[in-house]
């Protein structure tokens, strides 16, 4: 979430940061804050995609979307980055 939450399904569902309801954050000043779109919005906006520069995300509450009752899961293991990136592009 600190990096934006870009993944293989971002083109369908958006980045993971779009699904964050609430965060627990430790700021650079050492304060532990609960932030959301309605409370401490400035902290919420700064830490999502902020690369850790504005605070440390300790906890996140994400909205879930419905899934079909049957899903298929793949585990793909790679020995080198070049092959993985070629498959990702494909």
Arithmetic mean pLDDT = 87
Q: Strand order across the biggest sheet?
A: 2-1-3
The structural class is alpha+beta
CA-based shape = globular
Helix content: 10-25%
Number of helices in the DSSP assignment: 3
Can you write the helix and strand succession as a string?
Answer: HEEHEH
For the CA atoms, what is the radius of gyration? 16 Å
Largest sheet: 3 strands, antiparallel
How widely separated are the two ends?
25 Å
Task: Count the beta strands.
Answer: 3
Describe the structure.
This protein is α+β, with helices and mostly antiparallel strands. The protein is 22% helix and 23% strand. The chain contains three helices and three strands. The protein has helices spanning 10-13, 41-47, 81-89, and strands spanning 20-27, 32-36, 55-62. A hairpin with a 4-residue loop joins strand 1 and strand 2. The longest helix is centred in the last third of the chain and has 9 residues, at 81-89. It starts with 9 loop residues before the first helix and ends with a helix.
Short description:
The chain is an alpha+beta fold. It is built from three helices and three strands.
List keywords for this structure.
90 residues, globular
């Amino acid at each position: 979430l600190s990096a934006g939450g870009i993944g293989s399904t971002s083109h369908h569902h958006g980045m993971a940061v779009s699904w964050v309801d609430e965060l627990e954050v430790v700021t650079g000043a050492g304060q532990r804050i609960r932030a959301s779109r309605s409370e401490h919005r400035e902290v919420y906006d700064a830490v999502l995609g902020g690369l850790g520069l504005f605070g440390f995300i300790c906890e996140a509450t994400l909205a879930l979307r419905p899934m079909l009752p049957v899903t298929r899961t793949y585990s793909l293991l790679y020995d080198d980055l070049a092959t993985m990136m070629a498959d990702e592009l494909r």
